[in-house]
Amino acid sequence: MNFFRNLKPALGALLLSGLAACGGGGGSSGADSGTLRLALTDAPSCGYDAVHVTIQKVRVHQSSTAGDTDSGWSEVTLSPARRVNLLTLTNGVLEELGQTPLPAGRYTQLRLVLADNSSASPLANAVLPTGGAEVALKTPSGQQSGVKANISIDIAANRMADFVIDFDACKSIVTAGNSGQFLLKPVVSVVPRYISGVTGFVDPALANGSTSVSLQQGGAVIKATTPDSGGKFLLQPVAPGSYSLVLTAPGRATVVVTNVAVAAELVTSVNAASTALNPAASASGTVAGSAPVDTLVRVIQPLTPTLTGGAPTTVEVIGRLVDSTTGHYSYALVVNAPMVAPYAAAPNPLVFVSDTAAAAKYSLSASLAGYPDKTSVLATLTAGSTITSNFSFP
């Protein structure tokens, strides 16, 4: 990624049906216009049963640096603003937002503008932590300027551009010290609506909301989801290509299927329900530390090249923004070796091997806007131990 659940169908009809011009960049149905169609989807949210946001409008512009008050914006206003729960648009579910004509050209900026919280019940923007009560979700910049996503959408005359807004809730909800407050700092991407994807099964016992299945390239998550109640997962849409499929679950060994081939217009199946992925239990250690507010700290695990086709392969195990007040982060990481198998098309089975050389070996990658990324290679983690790693940026 280098980027909403329970939206009702009525939202689609409202959201883009009235895209109107602002300052000369508005919709057009003339000969030099094309059509933009959008849908929403979401990556899994870790530790929450609901994340509600209230959308006021969506804006698009042909300049990635355009400011709020610059001319050239095209936008849709939801009237009334629509409160939605982000946490059902996963496992390949798309919520149609509708379509609208736009002047031909390349659009490079999209913004989702959120409503302010008020004393009204329910709250416009709120989060429901697992096992807790709903609390306000603060949106520091979402209400005024909008949640920004850099895009590259070409609108061609008499053609439709079909795209999906992908919201990564896990990386977007940030704790604020011990105050019990949560902030929304959205990680959003906009991708073409590919039909291609990957499907498979994990053991239903792992379908508990805490398990994550992702497709990765170069140690970066491209698409992630959580299995449904039966253990089935669907990662879609993703571009054709070759991916590592990564399964992580608290207290379970990490599972990696390498070189998963995704072809255009097809959904690749990695396994059947009868061979559901069910990694063994593992003890855990902890890595913790601090970094400047707004730093994204990712845990990376390198795999042994001889088990990945000879090419160096790393996978992301977890990654979140540090606490928005204290800058603290803490991750529980398993110490057992990851289980690695090369992708094999059915009816051939996946043959897993324990990557003992990679057991309990991790590195950290810290990213803060405006600075080069920093990395830290950790000592080998042991069960019950804690490794501290702090980051600072000039």
Task: Write up this protein.
This protein is an all-beta fold and 394 residues long. Helix content is 3%, strand content 47%. The chain has two domains: 9-192, no CATH class; 197-388, Immunoglobulin-like (Sandwich). It has helices at 9-15, 169-172, and strands spanning 20-21, 33-43, 48-61, 74-85, 95-103, 105-114, 126-129, 135-138, 147-155, 160-168, 173-176, 181-184, 188-192, 197-201, 212-217, 220-225, 232-235, 241-248, 255-262, 267-269, 284-290, 296-303, 313-321, 328-334, 339-342, 353-354, 363-367, 374-377, 386-388. The strands form six sheets. Strands 1, 3, 4, 6, 7, 8, 9, 11 and 12 form a nine-stranded mixed β-sheet that branches. It is globular and about 60 Å long. The two termini are 25 Å apart.
Descriptive terms for the model:
Immunoglobulin-like; 6-stranded mixed β-sheet; 394 residues; 9-stranded mixed β-sheet; 29 strands; disordered N terminus; mainly beta; 47% strand; single chain; 2 helices
Summarize the structure.
By secondary structure, this protein is an all-beta fold.
